[in-house]
Structure formats: C-alpha cells, structure tokens
Amino acid sequence: MISTITRLEDGTITLHITVPKSEVKKTEDEVIEEFAKNAKIPGFRKGKAPKKIVETNVSKANIREEVLRHLLPKFYIQAVQEHKIRPMMDPRIHVKGDLKEGEDWEFEASTAEAPEVNLGTYKEAIKQVTAKSKIIVPGKPASPNASQGGEPEQVKFDDIVKVLLDTVTLKIPAPLLDRETDRLLAQSLDEIKKLGLSLDQYLSSTGKTAEGLRLEYQKRAENDLKLELILQKVAESEKITVDDAEISSTIAKAKTPEEKKGLEANRYLLASIIRQQKTLDFLKSL
Prior knowledge:
This protein has 11 helices and 4 strands. It is an alpha+beta fold.
C-alpha cells in the first residue's frame, strides 16, 4: 500500500491511498470463493459449483462492490495508523478512476481531526456575564445570587453560549461541518414531511430558498459543533471529570425500566452529557 496525506488548516485531512493490484486480485479471489460457498446454481449442490462457473454467474459489479467493501476499511485503517492521525469522524470515500482489472486501485478518504481550540480570555468574558448575579445588597446577607432587587438573577444559558462563541477561537473542519449540516437538514425534512408538506411547499410558505435553508442550518451546525468542542476543552483545562458513582446515580433516577436499560447501554454517552452539564455549572459559577 502507498498512502500520502494532505492536511488543511481547519483540520481537514485527505488520505490518498493506492492498493496494489496483487492485493486487489487476492481479495477478489477470496470474494469469489465466498460467493461460491453460498451459490445456488442449477446442476450443482449449494456451494459445490466450480469457481469459474460461479464467477460467470455473478455480475462483475457485485464482485467489485464486495471487493471494495473488504479493501476500503482495511487500507483506510492502515493509512490512519501509518500517518498517526486521530480522526473524529467516519471518512468520506471517493474512488478514483474505473478500477480496472489487473491494475492498482486508488481512492481518497476525507476525514478530520479535532481542531485546535484557543480558549483565550474566556473566563474574564464569562465573569462579566455572571457578575450581575453576585451583587451584594447592603444590609442583606451575602448571597451568590443576590441582586439589587432582592431576587436572584439567574445567569442565562444563551448568554454564556454567546460569550463562548464570541471569545473562543477555533475552525470547524469542512467535512465535519458538512456532515452535521446534512444531519440537521435531514431531521428538519422528516419533520416537514410529518406535517404533510413537501420541501417546495415549505420553502414557498416560509419565503426561503433551498440555498438559504442550507446556509441557515450550516450556521446552526457550526455553532453546535463549536459549543461542543469548547465545552470539551474547558472540561479538559479545568480537569472536570465524571466518575462511575455519578453515572450510576443518574441511571438510578430513570423513570422506567426501559429508560434505565437504555442509559445502562449508553454509559459513555451519559458520562459525556453529565460532564457537559458539570462544565456549564462551572461556567455559571465564575
């Protein structure tokens, strides 16, 4: 295998991978043997037809598709290990050329590593938002949430998010942004269909265009991804962690056995959610 890597400033990575024709041929033979084991060809018992006959009864397109299914993950993983990268998303694969028999096969895999997050002076900026909830009124007991009106003035989540997005510097890799935009759009289109509307009807009723709608969701996706990465960086910087006791305590509060089972099956995801909430609580306390 021959592989080269291209890195962009935003963390986008493209791996250019060449699979030797010898590996293609070896995998093709293995695929045909697998087809032969399950082939039902008139005049032969299942799995007993000669390889050559099986090969003529299976379309080349099906064989090629199965060969690719075996080759692409294997050589992508090898390239990732070779270049010592840490992808944060599944790759988008682009097969190059016509994949001719007896020749090397080439493909490109686009992925992304986590971008660098520069927290800058985020604490000072957050403190400007939280300061109004810590005003001590003369003659009243000191309270971390006391305001001049005597009522607690809670810090708004949206205010903290705005400060973080305005203060912290990072660039979202294009492949990651495209994937999240596509996910949000697909989710929105499903909701539109449930309302009995087509996309054209929805666009007409809202005065939007398809291009404008995608830009809208692209901005939302960018902010969502930025916030997630910023909170991860803050948690790492402040050594905010989640232990098994906290996870088990949350699971114990499940309202139904089904909910409890679901949480148990997703402890890693649950830990991530708890850590994110603890990070937000930390930010509110600044």
